[in-house]
């Protein structure tokens, strides 16, 4: 009996451990299957027809305001590891000045590039202080005039002193 209970607990622990290793998939953005590639016809479709077929774009071009981007991505998370992008598809629809589609392009994950971000900082004048120097920097620098008989004029320091 005791052996049966311990075997059941062992099997349950293994099942829980194995289920923790299953990847979690998350889909973001405009989704369509490979068979349902949106049919957008150049020089026939307009902004309104694209809106009715695909909905609002994920984003619009920063410098090319006439370009709409429909972005979809699938990310995979496995246990404690950083999520990885498994699939990415981008449909870029460009319109001319009359609102007609002038170009349609599709990009995938293989078209992307890794951009190295520069982590340089702008240097500041002066020297860098350590933590202790910052913490104890004003110890011993208290002005002795404030504790004596002299008083500052109202409105701040730096003005002439009052005679007493």
UniProtKB/TrEMBL annotation:
<feature type="domain" description="Outer membrane protein assembly factor BamE">
    <location>
        <begin position="33"/>
        <end position="103"/>
    </location>
</feature>
<dbReference type="Pfam" id="PF04355">
    <property type="entry name" value="BamE"/>
</dbReference>
<dbReference type="GO" id="GO:0043165">
    <property type="term" value="P:Gram-negative-bacterium-type cell outer membrane assembly"/>
</dbReference>
<protein>
    <recommendedName>
        <fullName>Outer membrane protein assembly factor BamE domain-containing protein</fullName>
    </recommendedName>
</protein>
<dbReference type="GO" id="GO:0051205">
    <property type="term" value="P:protein insertion into membrane"/>
</dbReference>
<dbReference type="GO" id="GO:0030674">
    <property type="term" value="F:protein-macromolecule adaptor activity"/>
</dbReference>
<feature type="region of interest" description="Disordered">
    <location>
        <begin position="142"/>
        <end position="164"/>
    </location>
</feature>
<keyword id="KW-0472">Membrane</keyword>
<dbReference type="InterPro" id="IPR037873">
    <property type="entry name" value="BamE-like"/>
</dbReference>
<keyword id="KW-0732">Signal</keyword>
<dbReference type="InterPro" id="IPR026592">
    <property type="entry name" value="BamE"/>
</dbReference>
<keyword id="KW-0998">Cell outer membrane</keyword>
<dbReference type="InterPro" id="IPR007450">
    <property type="entry name" value="BamE_dom"/>
</dbReference>
<feature type="compositionally biased region" description="Gly residues">
    <location>
        <begin position="155"/>
        <end position="164"/>
    </location>
</feature>
<feature type="signal peptide">
    <location>
        <begin position="1"/>
        <end position="20"/>
    </location>
</feature>
<dbReference type="GO" id="GO:1990063">
    <property type="term" value="C:Bam protein complex"/>
</dbReference>
């Amino acid at each position: 009996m005791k052996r049966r209970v311990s075997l059941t607990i062992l099997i349950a622990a293994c099942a829980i451990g194995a289920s923790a290793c299953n990847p979690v998939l998350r889909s973001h953005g405009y989704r369509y299957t490979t068979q349902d590639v949106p049919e957008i016809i150049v020089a026939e479709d307009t902004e309104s027809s694209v809106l009715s077929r695909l909905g609002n774009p994920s984003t619009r071009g920063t410098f090319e305001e006439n370009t709409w981007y429909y972005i979809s991505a699938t990310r995979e998370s496995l246990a404690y590891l950083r999520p990885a992008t498994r699939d990415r598809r981008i449909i870029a629809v460009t319109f001319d000045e009359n609102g007609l589609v002038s170009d349609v392009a599709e990009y995938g994950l293989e078209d992307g590039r890794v951009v190295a971000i520069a982590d340089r900082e702008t240097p500041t004048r002066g020297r860098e202080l350590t933590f202790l120097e910052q913490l104890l920097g004003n110890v011993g620098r208290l002005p002795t005039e404030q504790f004596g008989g002299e008083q500052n004029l109202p409105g701040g320091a730096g003005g002439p002193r009052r005679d007493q």
